Amino acid sequence: MATVSFKGATRYYAGVDKPAVDRLDLEVEDGEFLVLVGPSGCGKSTTLRMLAGLEGVDEGQVHIGDRDVTDLPPKDRDIAMVFQNYALYPHMTVAENIGFHLKIGKVPKAERARMVAEAAELLDLEPYLDRKPAKLSGGQRQRVAMGRAIVRRPQVFCMDEPLSNLDAKLRVQTRTQIASLQRRLGVTTIYVTHDQVEAMTMGDRVAVLKDGTLQQCDTPVGLFAKPANLFVAGFIGSPAMNLLPQGEHVLGVRPEGWRITEDVDGTPGAISATVEVVEELGSDQYLYCATPEHEQPLTVRTPGMAPWQRGDRIGLVPLPDAAHRFDAATGERLPG
Ligand SMILES: Nc1ncnc2c1ncn2[C@@H]1O[C@H](COP(=O)(O)OP(=O)(O)OP(=O)(O)O)[C@@H](O)[C@H]1O
């Protein structure tokens, strides 16, 4: 096990002036589950591939523990990678797929069988050890890919969208399994996803990237409570934070951060709004409200079966501590 450090790590692709990853500084702790998240093209995969040695580092360095691995080939980095497409060998059985790297590494046969059996037990794959990948479900294939990574006992796991081929329900189940497995094994893990819910539920910390630049790295609670800028504020949280321009500032209020009042005119500071759409979720209700000042409707989340209906006029006041403020010009969070 080991720490991972990116020190000003920068990657340019041939023929592109702007770096795909720009001076990335990031320290991952020993045993930590760190998620890289951001929209398509923000540089998540490139960051992971620089760590795995599948992509060169043009400026800066990458360290694993106390080793500078910047110029080491992938096989010497002691990393196991789990890809989106799993990259299983179709002609090999589950057991052979899981044990493949051990065989290449000349681990004796009996030892290999023991390690494969151990991984299969951990991943509930024992009944399938003699099957070929074509006869497995998507979730089982995903677990075989995990098994192949686990038996190598690497210092670091690198996972690039390993759940994106699963349907929504299985994805939710599998993300819990991966997170708990990682905690049990205690192997430092860097996990790439574009899904902010996946990021927030799995990561000890989450690093948010945009256009190749790290925006913020914090615990899920930290990102949610104190987004460092407008991008993070809008990206983390679902439904997204309401962002209301107010001259030189932007006021940010999460959908659950409003107090609703019927006394619109008698409540100082209340934003007057008309309920346009009501979404019933059973446990919650979402209101989408039009206001005279703002083009975008405001989203309001209320617990339970609130009494509001389309056409109601309501007043919205940010709850104490629910107001986030940003500089409209720079997008940076303002103190307080
Ligand atoms: N081989 C390449 N040659 C040129 N440009 C590339 C190459 N690979 C990636 N890029 C560009 O580098 C940027 C970062 O790509 P990267 O794949 O790291 O993003 P990502 O955040 O993982 O995106 P996605 O979620 O879509 O996989 C993008 O603008 C992409 O178009």
Automatic annotation (TrEMBL):
Gene3D superfamilies listed in its UniProt record: 2.40.50.100, Nucleic acid-binding proteins, P-loop containing nucleotide triphosphate hydrolases
CDD domains noted in UniProt: ABC_MalK_N
Gene Ontology MF term list: ATP binding
Domain ABC transporter intervals: 4-236
Keywords: ATP-binding, Nucleotide-binding, Transport
Domain of life where this protein originates: Bacteria
Keyword Signal among UniProt keywords: no
Protein name stated in the entry: Sn-glycerol-3-phosphate ABC transporter ATP-binding protein UgpC
The organism of origin for this protein: Amycolatopsis minnesotensis
